[in-house]
Write a structure and sequence with these properties.
It is a single chain. The chain is mostly helical. The chain folds into two domains: 137 residues, Peroxidase, domain 1, CATH 1.10.520; 134 residues, Orthogonal Bundle (Peroxidase, domain 2), CATH 1.10.420. Helix content is 46%, strand content 2%. The chain has a two-stranded antiparallel ribbon with strand order 1-2. Helix 2 runs antiparallel to helix 4. The protein is globular, with a radius of gyration of 20 Å. The two termini are 40 Å apart.
Amino acid sequence: MKPSFLFLLLALVLVNAVIVCNGSKLLKMKYYHKSCDSVDDIVRDITWRKVAEDPSFAAKLLRLHYHDCFVRGCDGSILLDSTDVDKKDNEKAALPNRSLSGYELIDAIKARLEEECPGVVSCADILALAARDAISFQFRRPMWNVFTGRKDGRFSLSSEATTDMPSPFSNFTTLLSQFQSHGLDMMDLVTLSGAHTIGTTRCALLSRRLYNFTGLGDTDPSLDPEYAESLRNICPNPLIPTTPVEMDPEGSGSFDSHYFKILNEHKGVFLSDAALLTNQQSAQMAKDLENPKVFFARFAQSMKKMSEIITLAEGEGEVRQNCRVVN
């Protein structure tokens, strides 16, 4: 590699790191105070009404926001529909994202805001606010602050979603590296894993851990034996890939710190959950986060950090008129 090319590559990496770390400087509280003062009320009211009708939307919107922020930053790129006739080129088509849902709620909020304040509120901001409000419905108060002012990205690539999204099969080193590449630390990794306290996964993601962990037809020995047996009852071999499985076996409908209790009992459903206990420091964090007050405070901080991952430089991006297509 020529020295000049190496220098250029290093410079590009440093520039990107600065943009990610300083993303919050592009955002503000009450960014729409003058241009669309009703944005918070509109997003909250529509989101709360939907979650009241269907509580599963809390997990859906939180997951949608998470998957958006880990690819190209929180720019609404996950919301873009494919422009390819085979529907294979965008983030939605990537394997980690094919089970995502909740897009129609973002569409409904966007349509209402376009009536109220046309061309003002970005889809990325709508998603960040709606994810917060979906979780907050249970408590009837905002659980964390959402700074706004994001712009919508114009690109969405399935290849990036495949490589950038943390995997439920990853070990601790890989998970931490992926979080750190986005300006998040070990505490953020452990805390945000607590989002697994709500929602469901599918038997397809548990097959190897239950039936062929080392290639010899065995079960992951780090999994509590009784819990492993209960999972095998839900996902018998040969399993039905789409069968739903609660991520928190004793309370997946409530957002609380119970995830950390079951994690410390070796009942975390994913390999990535179990991985948190393989590092002494993260294992202690998981123990501390069993305390609800500690978890809620830390989750608020980590969500604010994650929602401020920005890769668009100031002046880049747009405010989409339709969240599914670029202007």
